[in-house]
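Morning run. Coffee first, then this:
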Amino acid sequence: MLGEKTLERFRVTPGKRVRLKDHDPAWAAADELADSSHKEIKASAKKLLKQTLEELAEAQELLYADNHHSILLIFQAMDAAGKDGTIKHVMSGVNPQGCQVFSFKQPSVMELDHTFLWRHQRVMPERGRIGIFNRSYYEDVLVVKVHPELLGRHLPERAKDQKQFWQDRYDDINAMERHLDRNGTMVLKFFLNVSKHEQKQRFLERLDRPEKNWKFSAGDLAERKHWDDYMSAYEDAMTATGTKTAPWYIIPADHKWVTRTVVAGIVTNAIRSLKLTMPALPPEELVKLAVARAELEQE
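And here it is:
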């Protein structure tokens, strides 16, 4: 697995202004993978990812057995950054009983009649489980910020007129994430940082390959025209909500194996930091096990 110091380089420092231009979307772990040829690097990367996923599966089993903590993984990104593929590959070895995935699309009429956090609070992960949000409540300080016409169709006028509106939303998010942390849910937030050039190549691939045509939407190109606005909104959101207890990680996303290996490593380290052990049975339960063993052996 990539070293802890390497993984920490992707973590947003609380209180420090985020500037995405300082983060390389094409970072490829050159220092950590000594092989020089492209073929050898890919082979090393594949081996590294396999090892990391095995370690994540072991960590998740401890989380499930302990049943005192839960993990919430939030994935945010521009279109074609690889959210779906990252979730699929990183969770490929995890026990399905211990994992819950939710994708959030455009809110329904009923959801708009509640606060922007309501539909997400309803599906927070249970103790012992990993919950995954493919997009999240952060859409309400990202998409809505870029497209203010979507804001507050059901909000009272006094809310829409507040000069501190966005800061108030950041404060609401921080308060909820502190509440989750205090009650045993570790929150890890990932921004998959794909370059505009790589997004273009992935869009073209979706257009060129019939089996991927379904992934393309005309709306993807429309949102691409707002690239700079989205980068600014992401910087503001991560600066305001990157905290010690609910950190943001800016993950290089131009190379898919990098994205998957780094995310898997961060999640594995996070679970290990809880220092969990398999639950020990009380003496009376051990007596029952001995009785059961004796009964089986006498059959």
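The longest strand covers residues 185-193. Good start to the day.
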